[in-house]
Write a structure and sequence with these properties.
The protein is α/β, with parallel strands linked by helices and 396 residues long. It has 15 helices and 14 strands. The strands form three sheets. A seven-stranded mixed β-sheet has the order 8-9-1-10-13-2-14, with helices on both faces. Strands 3, 4, 5, 6 and 7 form a five-stranded antiparallel β-sheet that branches. β5 and β6 form a beta hairpin. The longest helix has 23 residues.
């Protein structure tokens, strides 16, 4: 049996007046996703328990069949795993964004999608000027980076931090770190503002008409998680195609290798066709191929419903279409299309709630769905309140 999972990150949304009451999924021309729905079954799944963050870190663990209450320790440790960073029993990882804050408002949680080279230079300065003993700033990709605390830190389960992408265009005061160790994180964030104010990287960005990285935003702290291998649980060897460290990290912990695709950016300018070609090729060597595309989520965070629709159409044409065609040559096969969580264009943030899934293939009976969107999935009457159950149904 061959399996394919396609994750258009955050593509679930709410009806919009500007779209005549449709959601972006309903307004998009996605004939291949619609065909999956017509040929198979649709439904709703809730990947984000209300007492946990509504983001991809929880939702994707659930989507891959790992109960978040059992395995979620924080976002940053998952991203550390993506970089091959081993965390000791007393170590903590903290997510470190480079952000643009103006007059106490989160203007841009990506600092204008700052380049990895620029981010690395800023973090080098932060390490030299700000890092306490035992703390290390680790560059990642663009605005997505890490802070490691080796040998212990004053954090506990009561430490509270917030994702900066949930505060776009909002005042940051309610989102500042609090609880045990919160004062340490806040001190680093405040001191980074002074350090970065006249940094050569920012002076060059301002001169070029680009947004500066006004400071660090520290969040998503946690200790090392431990996941049972996916193959041992579900009997299929998977491989991950993504441009996002979070998904790379979950894959690594689950025992999946990853395929790096040239031109995959984790943004709207990603090379959709290259990801599709890589996925088709990967079917030759793996039981299960997962393609994660961040573009739909990025469009949502920017409040751009037209860009979200365009990203969905690109995924449909260049990823889902070629994979459906390739799967037909392998005999027994199944395909699952599902976002991880909703991200509303109206709020520009991740949201708790159900997401629509569509799966088709060998042994999956067709229902009455005629298209793939939130309304069709809700009309099916099929709902998984615990999203981690979906993977068992898909691979069972």
């Amino acid at each position: 049996m061959k399996y394919v999972i396609v994750i258009p990150d955050g593509c679930a949304d709410e009806p919009m007046d500007v779209l005549g009451g449709k959601t972006p999924m309903g307004a998009a021309s996605i004939p291949h996703m619609d065909a999956v729905a017509k040929d198979g079954a649709v439904g709703l799944a809730n990947n984000t328990p209300s007492h946990l963050p509504a983001g991809s870190e929880v939702a994707n663990l659930s989507l891959f069949g790992y109960r978040p209450d059992d395995y979620f320790t924080g976002r940053a440790p998952l991203e550390a795993a993506a970089q091959g960073i081993e965390l000791g029993a007393e170590d903590w990882a903290v997510r470190c964004n480079l952000v643009t804050v103006e007059d106490g408002t989160m203007v841009d949680f990506t600092a204008g999608h700052i380049s990895t080279e620029e981010a690395t230079a800023l973090l080098k300065s932060a390490q030299h000027e700000l890092a306490p003993d035992g703390f290390e700033f680790v560059p990642g990709v663009s605005y997505r980076n890490l802070l490691l605390a080796r040998g212990g830190a004053p954090f506990t389960s009561d430490t509270r931090t917030c994702a900066p992408h949930d505060y776009t265009d909002l005042a940051i005061d309610p989102a500042l770190p609090s609880g045990p160790g919160g004062d340490l994180l806040l001190d680093l964030m405040n001191r980074s503002e002074a350090l970065f104010a006249d940094h050569p990287v920012n002076l060059a960005r301002i001169a070029a008409g680009e947004r500066p990285a006004t400071g660090l935003w520290l969040w998503g702290q946690g200790r090392a998680p431990s996941l049972p291998l996916f193959k041992e649980r579900y009997g299929a060897q998977g491989v991950m195609i993504t441009a996002v460290d979070l998904l790379r990290g979950i894959a690594a912990l689950a025992g999946w290798p990853r395929i790096e695709v040239e031109g995959a950016t984790g943004y709207l300018d990603t090379d959709y066709a290259a990801k599709g070609r890589a996925a088709v090729k990967a079917l030759e060597d793996y039981d299960l191929v997962c393609v994660h595309v961040e573009a739909t989520d990025e469009a949502s965070h920017e409040g751009r419903h037209v860009a979200k629709i365009e990203a969905l159409e690109q995924i449909d044409t260049h990823v889902v279409g070629p994979l459906r065609e390739a799967l037909a040559t392998y005999g027994d096969h199944r395909i699952l299309v599902t976002p991880d969580h909703p991200t509303y264009c109206s709020t520009k943030k991740h949201t708790h709630g159900d997401v629509p899934f569509a799966m088709a293939g060998t042994g999956i009976d067709a229902d009455d769905a005629t298209a793939y969107d939130e309304f069709q999935a809700a009309a099916s009457g099929r709902r998984l309140g615990d999203g981690e159950l979906l993977m068992g149904e898909f691979t069972g």
